[in-house]
Write a structure and sequence with these properties.
The structure holds 2 protein chains of 2 kinds. Chain A has helices spanning 3-19, 26-56, 316-319; strands at 87-91, 97-101, 107-110, 120-122, 126-135, 138-144, 151-153, 161-166, 172-183, 190-202, 207-213, 216-223, 229-236, 245-250, 262-265, 271-273, 277-278, 284-291, 296-302, 308-314, 322-328, 335-340, 346-352, 355-360. Chain A is mainly beta. Chain B has helices at residues 7-26, 29-45, 47-50, 56-68, 71-85, 96-106, 110-121, 126-133, 137-155, 160-168. The chains are: A mainly beta, B mainly alpha.
Chain lengths: 368, 169
């Protein structure tokens, strides 16, 4: 085939796609760019407020218990007393997050790569934070030394890390990684992520346990308060298949190499699962489910039997949004969740008993 | 000078063309639209810097291609959108020629598809493709030769392995 013929046919092929697309108005694209810049600052601000609040022990803004007795849930990271930290995360030049010296207010160091989500807090090892899109199959986690502000990779040598959780007693790390193959080089690198692996590292002995699950991705991890169980989300990697499920793994009895947790929730085809969360001070693990046709739900399971123990339906007439995240406070009394609204803004709500109460009308991410 | 000076013009002139090029590589219109829109959103955020480049379009194209090749993110985004927004947008009706081309391109390695589209559709010189992909010009030439031989072979009804033999023979 002549070069010109090939060019003509290839060009016609590309033009068929081009003719079928009509992008949004350029002003809308610019607005999205501006919103994203603002969102980064907002996310950083929320994270900074959360950390500063925790560091200073200022928890008076938390909602009261459902009984109305005025008690405030106690929440302090282990091993850190109010007033003790020498540094905190603050916002520096251009909205960038910096490790700031408490005494002088001077930024010690700017976070590089920048913080894009609320960090995982870990009092024993500094602050572990999350940076997006390190690899096609995973993210990057970095560790801030709270004394010096130095930032270094949290799992050096590990690639394709998809989720991370630190045990409540800070002695073990659980992370999920993809088994992936790379081909090509430079910008043309193509990554094929296939199996998923769950790795639990005991920091005291530096021993590892690894479980594998074929053709799937472990999407989220959460430790039980006593450190004996892990809840996780699992999704097959088949394009177009929505097979998100939530499982529970008992670490005292689990054998490898195949990951075989107990199935908790398997919502319908038009539903997505949110990361499962253990409720501190109880035997429950909560799973959020957001569906296209049905109302979003908060499903509570017994963490020993795996049985459904309760269900709260978020009627769209009541809350009017799509469930995005759920998280308990340290006492397990309040469940904080965020809802994305159709117009793009997100809201933070607290579940008090069976009643949902809005606490912030404009909040992309929220944490205790 | 307005901050967005030149952005709208570049977007209006190049959006569709870029979607066509990216779609020809990845074989999926939705993924291509996502990638190109993402690239323009990023460009708008850094426009004051990017507009000073000799070829702002090259920056946008590079980001769009890179974005389109991030497989897992694409799949996750699609799953989320499927759940929240319902069925995917309509795909173009391809002619018989287009269907043949679609099948043939799908059988080529990704890096060969990329080079073929940049060379034949975007009409970039080999040196510019090499700069965009950050590979030596010799690598571009070899991918181009292999891709061209394999694609021509498949479109002529020959097996890719046979086409390769012909090329090397």
């Amino acid at each position: 085939m002549a070069d010109q013929d090939l060019q003509a046919r290839l060009t016609a092929y590309a033009e068929a796609f081009a003719a079928s697309t009509h992008g949004p108005d350029p002003a809308a694209v610019r607005r999205r760019g501006r919103r994203r810049a603002h969102r980064r600052v907002a996310v950083a601000a929320v994270a900074v407020v959360a950390i500063a609040t925790i560091s200073a022990g200022l928890v008076s803004w938390l909602p009261t218990r459902p009984g109305g007795d005025g008690a405030v849930p106690a929440f302090r990271p282990a091993g850190r007393e109010p007033g003790e930290p020498r540094t905190f995360l603050g916002i520096g030049r251009n909205g960038r997050v910096a490790v700031v010296q408490t005494a002088t207010g001077r930024p010690l160091r700017y976070l590089t790569p920048p913080l894009v989500r609320i960090p995982v807090l870990d009092a024993a090892h500094g602050i572990v934070y999350y940076a997006d899109n390190a690899d096609a199959c995973g993210n990057a986690y970095h560790q801030v030394d709270v004394a010096t502000g130095k930032v270094r990779p949290f799992l050096p040598g590990e690639r394709f890390v998809e989720a991370l959780a630190i045990s409540p007693d800070r002695t073990r790390i659980a992370f999920a990684r993809a088994v992936a193959q790379e081909s090509g080089s430079g910008d043309a690198v193509s990554v094929d992520c296939h199996d998923g692996e769950l790795v639990v590292v005991d920091l005291r002995t530096n021993t590892r346990r690894v479980w594998t699950v074929p053709n799937s991705s472990l999407t989220d991890l959460d430790w039980s308060p006593d450190g004996t169980q892990l809840a996780y989300g699992l999704q097959t990697r088949d394009v177009g298949a929505n097979t998100a499920r939530a499982y529970l793994l008992d670490l005292t009895t689990a054998n490898g190499p195949r990951l075989a947790g107990r199935l908790l929730a398997a919502p319908g085809q038009d539903c997505q699962l949110l990361p499962p969360r253990f409720q501190p001070g109880s035997d429950r693990v909560m799973v959020g489910s957001t569906c296209q046709r049905n109302h979003d739900q908060l499903l509570a399971y017994d963490r020993h039997s795996g049985r459904l123990a309760g269900r709260t339906t978020l009627a769209s007439g009541q809350t009017g949004g799509i469930l995005q995240s759920i998280t308990f406070d340290a006492s397990g009394t309040h469940l904080l969740f965020t809802l994305a609204r159709r117009h793009g803004k997100a809201e933070a709500w607290v579940l008090r008993g069976d009643r949902a109460v809005i606490v912030s009308p404009d909040c992309d991410m929220a944490d205790w | 000078m307005r901050d967005s000076e030149g952005f709208d013009e570049l977007y209006l002139a190049c959006y569709q063309r870029l979607v066509g090029q990216v779609a020809a590589v990845v074989g999926d219109l939705g993924d291509a639209e996502d990638a190109v829109q993402e690239a323009f959103v990023r460009a708008s955020r850094h426009w004051s810097r990017i507009r000073a480049y000799d070829l702002p379009l090259a920056w946008v194209r590079r980001v769009a291609f890179r974005e389109a090749l991030s497989g897992l993110r694409r799949r996750r985004r699609r799953l989320a959108l499927l759940v929240r927004l319902g069925p995917p947008p309509a795909v173009p009706e391809l002619s018989a020629d287009g269907v043949d081309m679609h099948r043939a391109m799908a059988r080529l390695p990704l890096r060969q598809r990329q080079v073929l589209v940049l060379f034949y559709v975007a009409e970039l010189p080999v040196e510019e493709i090499a700069a965009q992909l950050r590979v030596p010009a010799g690598t571009v030439k070899s991918r181009l030769a292999r891709g061209r031989a394999a694609l021509a072979g498949m479109l002529d009804g020959r097996d890719p392995a046979q086409a390769k033999e012909t090329h090397h023979g």
